[in-house]
Design a protein that fits this description.
By secondary structure, the chain is an alpha+beta fold. The chain is built from 8 helices and 5 strands, in the order ααααααββαββαβ. Helix 5 packs across helix 6. It holds the Pfam family Fra10Ac1.
């Protein structure tokens, strides 16, 4: 009896299906099942017990969504509508009146006004120094003119005042100033003669001279004018 106790332990019964072996086998199955679940789980699948988002995360998402909507609304507007909206928001938050933001049209200028202020009868090299966009516009217009014959304004010849300008493309095509009288108010085509006169003028506060060609009908009044302007006669 003592020998039996020694073999089987301190008075107990031993078995091949012990609890330790059972626990080992179940743990292996659990690890295997866990690995299979990890393999089968999709990347975007949430866990069984997802954590509740913090309140600040929800607030940040709302702010981003509102900013996206505001940006899309501003992009859908044109420049003038955006300007009115910004002015309205400024008045709403900081106070004021719309009359304070009304633009004054006193300093408005058209392209024609810019040309009149910066036009030159003849452009020299020194005139092209320190070019501004106004001067560039006037120079671009000057380059399109035809500078062989002039168109004359002789309406104020009694005051010893004469006006000369270069011909435009339409006048060259119609023959004005070459095949028609170069006088602004004359359209005759017969009896024309060419003259080259010394044109003295004041431009931007500076006195200048230029030899210009003029093709007109030499009637009595015009002869008096040409006598004052004549430099030499062209055959």
């Amino acid at each position: 009896m003592d020998n039996l106790v020694k073999v089987h332990g301190s008075g107990g019964y031993d078995s091949d299906f012990s609890d330790d072996d059972g626990e080992g086998e179940s743990s292996e199955r659990g690890l295997k099942r866990k690995r299979e679940e990890e393999i089968l789980q999709k990347p975007f699948k949430k866990g069984r017990h997802s954590q509740v988002a913090h309140r600040s995360l929800h607030s940040n998402e709302l702010d981003r969504e509102e900013a996206r909507n505001r940006r899309a609304h501003l992009i859908s507007m044109n420049a003038f509508e955006r300007h009115k909206k910004f002015v309205g928001d400024y008045i709403l938050y900081y106070g004021g009146q719309m009359a304070d933001f009304k633009r004054s049209p006193t300093k408005d200028k058209t392209d024609l006004d810019v040309l009149r202020e910066n036009h030159r009868f003849l452009w020299r090299d020194e005139d092209e120094d320190d070019m501004t966009w106004e001067k560039e516009l006037a120079k671009k217009y000057y380059d399109k003119l035809f500078k062989e014959y002039c168109i004359a304004d002789l309406s104020r010849y009694k005051e010893n005042k004469f006006g000369f300008r270069w011909r435009t493309e339409n006048e060259v095509v119609s023959g004005k100033g070459q095949f028609q009288c170069g006088n602004k108010r004359c359209e005759k085509q017969e009896g024309l003669k060419s003259w080259e006169v010394n044109f003295a003028y004041v431009e931007h506060g500076e006195k200048r001279n230029a030899l210009v060609k003029l093709r007109v009908i030499p009637h009595q009044k015009l002869v008096k004018v040409v006598e004052k302007l004549l430099n030499r006669f062209l055959k």
